[in-house]
Amino acid sequence: MRALKTQKNVIYQAKFMIQGEQKMKMSHACISAVCAAFISSSALAEDKVLNIYNWSDYITPDAVANFEKETGIKVNYDVYDSNEALEAKLMAGSSGYDLVFPSNSFFERQVKAGAYQTIDKSLLSNYKNIDQQLASKVAQHDEGNLHNVPYAWGTVGIGYNIDMVKERLGDDFQLDSLDVLLKPEVAAKLQDCGIAVLDSPAEVMSIVNNYIGEDPNSESLSDLKASAKVLSEARPYYKYFHSSQYISDLANGDICVALGYNGDLLQAKDRALEAGQGVNIGFSIPREGTLLWFDLMAIPADAPHPQAALKYINYILRGDVAASLSNYVFYAVPNTAATPMLDTEISENKGVYPVQAVKDKLFIQVAHTPKFDRSLTRTWSNIKTGR
Ligand code: N2P
């Protein structure tokens, strides 16, 4: 895998050199007015399209349309719901994407593989809005933050249907513990109303490691085995593993517990309220501690329209745009200019901005080695298929 990545790195670099050479050759050859017109129209064409690949349920509905209106740039917007899906596209090369949104740990190894180009911050007039405390944390994954601009951050938590769960576990059961998903005798009582778990091997296994008292970032195979055993024993009572379907299922009352991304679970709560069908959703950050992640904006090394990507990044960095993003998706944004424009429903929501005592129990994931990743992928597929 490492060899493969090095090879990709070389391919990326080679592609750039070829592109650079072609541009140079073109500018030497293009001395006529026709050529001049060609260059300016192709530069213009570069600016008029932007191919974005972002997480699902992660943008304000009118944000892209407003950007298109303001800039005249046409945005093609695709979505994914796992870092693995994004990484597969990036590593295959020639994804055609100009802007992607990896999480910190995955991003770190992608940077090392040469997947991203450097971002010229002098072209981002709104970069000053970035919360420097958060940026310094992200710098642990990308020295000098050369290849990223933070987009949003959050945790993995538990969303639940208050009435369905109370009915099955009693009024006194504390829903702030991973016991609800990881103790087979508890999960069994919820099997009929439906438990969903993120289909995200690295993230979920780090949370289970932490739950059993091991290092969340452990690469020891015996820790992996111990965590896999915990999940496998509860697995028969799960309805499915998926990383986005739980939003609507929870909102509609089709499942009663989900281990998911905090903002997505809070969106489920909001959608349920709006639907007015009597579905009451609760959210908690597990008291055992959980994963804290940062999602970053990054420009693939071979992005066809990097200038348009920079314009979009600068747009997202605007205080008003970042605030409406946070207000809509229920994720925290690392933007100091947005803070005064946040709805109190968001700024005072402890599920979005956890209090210090909860923050102290959060952990950050580091990139796994390719060797461990292979064991993890195998183990995960065995857990999912119940083998
Ligand atoms: C959005 C999920 C984003 C959080 N649906 C994952 N890092």
UniProtKB/TrEMBL annotation:
Residues 1-45 form the signal peptide. It is found in: Periplasm. Gene3D superfamilies: Periplasmic binding protein-like II. Its main location: periplasm. Belongs to the bacterial solute-binding protein PotD/PotF family. Required for the activity of the bacterial periplasmic transport system of putrescine. This is Putrescine-binding periplasmic protein.
